[in-house]
Design brief:
The protein is of the alpha+beta class and 586 residues long. It contains 13 helices and 30 strands.
Length: 586
């Protein structure tokens, strides 16, 4: 295994469970070792060299047990970063850490992460974070091995920690994986190791890194085999660096990149060719503060590594896209075609559906994936801010519940919906993907209820009424009588029949104390004007009438939430018609 590259590690888990804090602690632990060149941290990656791993994990790993040259932690937002930041042939990450808050356990995003881990067949360990907040926890004054910390903390902490480990293990079992505390696992091919960690104090960090090293060396030897051929990388983002200009922040995951190499890059609109003008890596300045660094140039870089890449036109690169070194015109055309296919959003254009926008191609893929999982059709997808053209197109989709834009990590341009203009489209903008989706689903449910209520107003509603004795105000043309609604909702414009099917006439209007009303619920007494009714001929005092229902309306009403009384009236009307047509209303 002497020819292995660094494993690429991604952190996943529910929001606020401590992913960022844990990564900061790993970076801080590396910095604390004061190893020259021991840390390279910038937007995108935290590199932990092998020499630093040996120092950090002294007493846990023997020198001869470390074969990989280090670990590369990919620092990208969102629990789908390892899936959405693609490489040719799979997800960017080789191995993952599933971060779980010891107090809260498995949460919705945790479950989603586990589903993706299973789908991608990605090895992973569980970091059970925030153990310093468990009952009986004690403060530490310096680096302390996990076993020593547990022993010194006392029985209350040991008991509460065991309870939380067991609870999380049970929840993970329900999701298809067997799990236990890492030091109790004898076979990692069948069990997931749970490492209790405090990102605040550093307890458990060394054990977690040692476990990642062990899993990588045992199960990923083929994936991590170094390749001297070609060079491939994933683009995390674009930025401007002082003294260098526009750069692409990339993770090199295969082969090597050299200054002068010709490359094909995923662009905003289509793949393009360029060449490597410079390769830069941040080097910490004296004092070791993470944000204070200079950029050193390198003639080449070997996977796995996070670097700034300078190349003509690199500002047009698509975040989340790919780049590849090409050696011939034929290879250039083949790679262009391949990247063009891979840069298409992972969604099919629907006849209707919402619009989705994100800041990167990876974010767009994740949002499309989430929409598909939640049954949300997507009409169009794009990288970049929400503009007026998108609003205009989505305003014209057929389904009113799809007139929405889900915007992840992107702004809404000022002219998208000018001030004072009606807003036919709802924009759900969020920096956390699942919140935008949850807000849209809540709005859609409310919109659907509102539309159903409006549709019911347009439907002929079941109703039953009685002509009150002593309240005949007009005999005919139209007949005006006092009525009482016995059930359902009575509205003007409906046809009235006797229970034997004989037609009475059309309910022209309803009045209550001289004022017209649009509808009358059960038990209401009011005046009714009935066109076609003649008192003494087809209508008399005391008659009970039904609202006649067209057959198509009966079928529609059976899908509505009718009250038992309304449903009984509907079935009464059905029986009237079936006395003539046996299969009416089916």
């Amino acid at each position: 295994m002497a020819g292995l590259r660094e494993p690429i590690v991604s952190l996943l888990g529910h929001v606020d469970h401590g992913k960022t804090t844990l990564l900061d602690r790993i970076a801080g632990s590396v910095k604390a070792e004061k190893e020259p060149g021991g840390i390279t941290q910038h937007i995108g990656a935290v590199e932990v060299p092998g020499a630093t791993v040996r120092q950090l994990c002294g007493g846990i790993l023997r020198t001869d047990q470390l074969v990989v040259p280090g670990l590369l932690f990919v620092d990208t937002p969102g629990h789908r970063s390892f899936e959405t930041l693609r490489r040719r042939g799979g997800a960017l990450a080789d191995i993952a850490i599933l971060v779980v808050d010891a107090r809260e356990g498995v949460m919705p995003q945790t479950r989603e992460s586990i589903q993706i881990l299973r789908h991608e067949k990605t090895p992973f360990a569980i970091a059970l974070t925030k153990i310093d907040l468990l009952p009986g926890g004690r403060k530490t004054t310096g680096p302390l091995r996990l076993a020593d910390h547990i022993a010194k903390a006392g029985p209350e902490f040991q008991r509460s920690l065991d309870e939380r480990v067991y609870a999380v293990a049970q929840e993970v079992v329900e999701l298809g994986f067997s799990a236990d505390r890492y030091d109790r696992v004898s076979d990692f091919t069948h069990n997931v190791g749970i490492v209790p960690v405090s990102a605040k104090t550093g307890v458990g960090v060394a054990e977690l890194i040692a476990l990642l090293v062990g899993l990588s060396q045992r199960f990923l030897s083929e994936e991590l085999a170094r390749s001297s051929e070609g060079g491939e990388a994933t683009i995390l983002e674009r930025s401007d660096q002082k003294g260098v200009g526009p750069v692409g922040n990339v993770i090199v995951y295969r082969g090597r990149l050299k200054v002068g190499d010709e490359i094909v890059v995923t662009g905003r609109t289509e793949p393009f060719e360029t060449h490597v003008r410079g390769i830069y890596r941040p080097v910490l300045l004296k004092g070791g503060k993470i944000k204070h660094f200079r950029l050193d140039s390198f003639p080449e870089v070997v996977a796995a590594a996070g670097v700034y890449l300078s190349a003509p036109g690199i500002e047009e690169a698509m975040p989340g896209g790919l780049l590849k070194v090409v050696r011939s015109p034929e290879e250039k055309e083949a790679v262009r075609a391949e990247l063009a296919r891979e840069s298409q959003p992972v969604t099919e254009v629907a006849l209707s559906g919402v619009a989705i926008c994100a800041d990167t191609l990876g974010g767009l893929e994740a949002l499309a994936f989430e929409c598909r999982e939640k049954g949300i059709p997507v009409h169009e997808a794009g990288v970049g801010p929400v503009g007026r053209a998108t609003i205009v197109r989505i305003a014209n989709v057929r389904d009113p519940t799809h007139r929405a834009v889900l915007a992840f990590n992107v702004p809404v341009l000022p002219d998208a919906q000018p001030e004072g203009e009606s807003e036919p489209v709802r924009v759900f903008r969020a920096d956390v993907m699942y919140r935008a989706i949850e807000e849209y689903l809540a709005w859609r449910a409310e919109r659907e209820r509102d539309l159903r209520a409006r549709a019911r107003l347009q439907l002929v509603h079941p109703a039953k009424l009685e002509v009150l004795s002593g309240y005949v105000f007009r005999i005919s043309k139209p007949a005006v009588v006092g009525v009482k609604v016995l059930g359902g909702i009575l509205r003007p414009g409906v046809r009235l029949i006797h229970p034997n099917g004989t037609e009475v006439g059309v309910l022209k209007s309803l009045q209550n104390e001289g004022a017209s009303v649009a509808e009358a619920p059960e038990s209401t007494e009011l005046a009714a004007s009935i066109d076609g009714a003649v008192i003494g001929r087809n209508l008399k005092e005391g008659d009970v009438l039904l609202v006649d229902l067209p057959e198509s309306v009966v079928r529609a009403l059976r899908r509505e939430a009718l009250t038992p009384r309304e449903l009984a009236i509907l079935e009464e009307v059905v029986e009237v018609h079936r006395s003539v047509h046996p299969f009416w209303g089916q």
